[in-house]
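Handout, tutorial session.
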Amino acid sequence: MSFLVLLLVLYIIWDVNYFIRVVFTVVAGRLFQKKRKITDKTTIYGICTSQDVDIFIRHMNNARYLRELDFARFHYYGLTGLYEEVKKLGGGAVQGASSVRYRRTIPIFHPYKIDTKLIWWDDKAIYLEQQFITVADGFVRAVALSKQCITNCSVNDVMKQFPEGKTAPAMPEELKLWLQAIEVSSDKLRKDK
């Protein structure tokens, strides 16, 4: 009885399903998928359930996209070993910024996949592109850019641990423009102080 009460309390004060899914995603990836290069695309699958929908119960809620992107990033880190190298150098990773462009909704009960790819890095952050693609038609439903700030170590030092990480790829134009927009926003906030 006390175990059930404890479990109920945990579910009330924490999002227990989130932590279970993170562990499952990383462990399943490591056990059942081959290791990937940091420059390789990784893929996870999901389905839009009744817990993911908006108030009209027709398609995925905008907040769920961001949650699913978390799982895809953890999966990417687990398959590539990138996060392990960051930890070895005494660092960590935090989400610095993200931008999602919604192209078409993901309807309830439709399966989808999320492709995650490292597209560029500088000395302080790595940049990922993530795409939501519905399985039935292969349509890219949403595209996200993610800035993962690496703390307490140099990204270039981390990347040197990987043969394919010696040189960053060319910066995509859309990433360049997005980073400029972030800088404009930061300048505005600095002036407001």
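The second record follows below. Compare its token runs with those of the first.
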Amino acid sequence: MADQTQLFDAVARVLARQPGSSMQEIASAAGISRTTLHRAFGDRETLVERLSEHVLADCERLFDAAGIDHAPVLEAFERLLDSTLAFAKAYALLFAEPYVYRVPRLVAEIETQDARLERFFARGQVEGAFRPDLPPRWLAYSVGAQLEAIWWAIDDGHVGPREAPRLVRATVLGGIATRGTTEAPAGATYTRP
């Protein structure tokens, strides 16, 4: 591995794809030796903690760079979408690895970032950029789910990295219903094929 960022990225991809992997499985899938992995991170819990700290710090830097606290809402949202891949990696890892939620300081940081994103959406609702009839927390969760979904779509080869921001933008801002369709018809049900 050329540098620490590449190592973090390789390990994050393995943990997002295969939560609960052993150190040997992580090392093999990341294309490094187990000795290199242990030298870089120590034990598995330390690896998850350091990797989570890394992606949370990336998220904080991206929030700052986008200006979600003070910049015009839609401009900040566009800048966030320009960083879709970095956010997607973070969301995929943090949602997949259960150990993260047993570390109080990581949980506190996740909650802090969730609250920050929720305030951004609430501000966007006040400014008329986002629908006012949906809770800001739901908007934040919805965007997080879209980011996780785009990660899997890219990782599975269904979406190209350059197409990712457009897909997230269109889905979040435009939804998936055709124009004029906002609710299912009364009595409509979905039956799996």
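Points raised in discussion: Residues 188-193 have pLDDT under 50 and may be disordered.
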